[in-house]
Amino acid sequence: MPHSTNVSTPTRTITSPDEKLVDADINTPARFLQDRGITLETLPFWLVNVPRSQWTTECPAFLRDQPPKNVQCLATPDSHYQRQSWEEVQEITRTNRIDRFQRVPSELRKYLEYMSQIKAEYGSVMRFVVTERLCWGDGSAENLRPRGGLFEFSEDIRILYNDWPYGIDTDIIHLVVWTKFELPDDPATGDLTAEAREAIERYVRETFCSLAPEQVVWFRNWKSLKSVHAIEHFHVMLHRPDMAFVQDITHGDVPLIERV
C-alpha cells in the first residue's frame, strides 16, 4: 500500500513526539491514526516502520533530500517488502543492473541514520571504515599504500561482511572485498578494464573454490552507487555457504547491522 513520500506533509496530522500513548492507542492503531487525521495512505514516509512512540512531527535531518528510490523504499512497510532471491541476484549481476539492489525499508532507515552519525563523529565514512573496520592505520596515504599489485599480497586485501547488506534472501551471505590497490577502469566505458576483471575472476575462483561456481557471484558498484569512494572494493555474494568457511575467511567478523 502506498504511503506519502512528500516531506512537506502537514505536521498538524501527526502526533506530537511528546504525546503519551495509552494502552488503548497501542492496541488499536487504526483508531489512533483515524483520531489524528492520519490514514495508512497518507502516513509520511519517515514514519513508516517506526513505532508510534518514536514519531516526529518533521522529517529527520538524515532522511531529507533523499533520492526518489530511497524515499519510495522508506515509504514501504517491511511486511510488503519482497526479498530478492538467489535467481534474481544472479540475473542482476549478470546484466550489471546493480541499481536494482535495494535494502529492506527499515534497514535502509537504520543505514542512513548510522551513516549520518558516522560522518558527524569521524568526518567521513572512509575514515571510519579504514580505522574501525579495516584497521588499516589512521587512513593516511602511507597506511593505505599497497605492498604489491593486484591480489599479489594478502596484507593488501581484507574480506568483511557488508555491514548493511541488500534486502536479499537470508540464505545469501553478502561480503565485501576491500583492497589497498586500485582496480583500474577503462576510461572509454567507465567499467573495469579486461585485466582487472580477469584478476578479480581469478581471485574469486581461488578464494571461494570450496563452493560450486553457481553459489558465487561478484560485482563492483558503479561509481554513482558507491557509499565509500576512496577505498577500492567489490562485492561477493554466496548462496548457502558453509558458515564455518565464512567465519574463517572473515576472521570472525560481525556486521554492524547485528551490533547496533
Task: Give the helices and strands, then pairings.
Elements: H1 23-27, H2 29-35, H3 68-74, H4 86-94, H5 105-122, H6 125-133, E1 157-161, E2 172-179, H7 194-207, E3 216-219, E4 232-239, H8 243-249
Antiparallel strand pairs: 1-2, 2-4, 3-4
Tally of DSSP helical segments: 8
| Overall helicity | 25-40%
* Domain unit count: 2
Uncertain ranges:
7-30
> What portion of residues belong to β-strands?
5-15%
Query: What is the overall pLDDT average?
Result: 86
What is the end-to-end distance? 29 Å
Which overall shape is indicated by the principal axes computed on the Cα atoms?
A: globular
Largest sheet: 4 strands, antiparallel
- Radius of gyration (Å): 21 Å
Main-sheet strand order equals 1-2-4-3
SSE order, one letter for each helix or strand:
HHHHHHEEHEEH
Q: What is the number of strand segments? A: 4
Structural class category: alpha+beta
GO biological process, one term: N-acetylglucosamine metabolic process
GO cellular component, one term: cytoplasm
Organism: Penicillium cataractarum
Protein name: N-acetylglucosamine-induced protein 1
